[in-house]
């Protein structure tokens, strides 16, 4: 494994927070996605590009699937969910909730949706949830989904949201769908959240 070149402290820290510490790990991502990370600018990308070329590596080509999400933050996630429709729904929910995309949220949540954060609060109703989410929306730099699972009427995901100030929100979500059907909407969500201080 080849260590990162000197790309400056902000860029190095931003990548390290996402556990990207080697050139080989950089090569697993596309240039456009890395540029969306707070702290990683064109100068750092230029240095990385040169270092990659010097080791026979290159940035990943931009995937058509990742490009279609149209968000202005980096998304690190398994985009190969086409054979697992509920995993795709969970992934789309996570991206929509981080970006505050009302239409996308309406497409994946049923009208009587219930969101519970144990010991904190519960919100009943899709519209109430979306309003609360958009009211408290943070400027996101990166969304990293570390695992995505689905089985029958249930699913789960966990990961990290990094805001533009470099602070992390660690989440673990447990989803319940309205039925076993592949296109079922999300009816309940229980979230465990840790906010970095």
UniProtKB/TrEMBL annotation:
<dbReference type="GO" id="GO:0003677">
    <property type="term" value="F:DNA binding"/>
</dbReference>
<keyword id="KW-0238">DNA-binding</keyword>
<dbReference type="InterPro" id="IPR032710">
    <property type="entry name" value="NTF2-like_dom_sf"/>
</dbReference>
<protein>
    <submittedName>
        <fullName>DNA-binding protein</fullName>
    </submittedName>
</protein>
């Amino acid at each position: 494994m080849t260590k990162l070149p000197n790309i400056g402290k902000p860029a190095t820290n931003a990548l390290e927070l996402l556990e990207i510490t080697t050139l080989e790990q950089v090569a697993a991502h596309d240039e456009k996605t890395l540029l969306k990370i707070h702290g990683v600018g064109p100068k750092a990308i230029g240095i990385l590009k040169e270092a990659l070329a010097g080791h026979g590596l290159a940035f990943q080509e931009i995937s058509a699937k990742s490009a279609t999400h149209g968000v202005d933050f980096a998304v690190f996630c398994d985009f190969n969910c086409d054979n697992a429709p509920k995993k795709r729904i969970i992934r789309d929910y996570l991206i929509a909730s981080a970006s505050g995309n009302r239409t996308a949220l309406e497409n994946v949540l049923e009208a009587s949706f219930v969101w519970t954060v144990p010991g904190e609060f519960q919100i009943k109703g899709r519209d109430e949830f979306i309003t609360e989410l958009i009211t408290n929306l943070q400027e996101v730099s990166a969304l990293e989904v570390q695992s995505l699972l689905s089985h029958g009427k249930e699913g789960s995901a966990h990961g990290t949201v990094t805001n533009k100030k470099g602070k992390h929100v660690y989440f673990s979500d447990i989803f319940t769908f309205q039925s076993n059907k592949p296109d079922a909407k999300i009816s309940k969500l229980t979230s465990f959240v840790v906010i970095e201080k």
